[in-house]
Amino acid sequence: MGDMALIIIAVAVAVLVLFLVVLITKTMKTVDEVNRTIAIVTQDTDILLKQADTLMAKTNTLLDDVNSKIVTIDPLFTAVADLSESISKVNQSGNALAKRFKGKASNAGKATAVVTLGRGAGKFFSRKKSKA
């Protein structure tokens, strides 16, 4: 009976060893595949980081260029704003002149209104020229 127990134990140990060898072999293949995957991911990450650095450098250069052009264009916008304000003042003056002469023209008729308007405009522009 003792020999039979030893044979059963020996067979069980052999089966266990065989199972462990298969398990270790599969585990080694899996670890090798994981190592290859990590190497590929590392290479791809390095490439992506280099491209991101290049992109950031180009973006910074572009941003500096845009900022310098904005500084160059800023006086243009200031001049346009000043011109707009001047045109608005001239328009207001023209409207005020037209209103003054409209009141005079309602009594005198259309022909007289044109003459009156012409005279008023002449006086207005002669005052502007003398001020300048």
TrEMBL record:
Matching InterPro entries: UPF0478 (IPR009293)
Pfam families reported in the protein's UniProt record: DUF948
TM region(s), chain numbering: 6-25
Keywords, comma-separated and alphabetical: Membrane, Transmembrane, Transmembrane helix
Xref: PANTHER family: UPF0478 PROTEIN YTXG
Name the record gives this protein: General stress protein
Organism annotation: Pseudolactococcus reticulitermitis
Upper taxonomic lineage: Bacteria, Bacillati, Bacillota, Bacilli, Lactobacillales
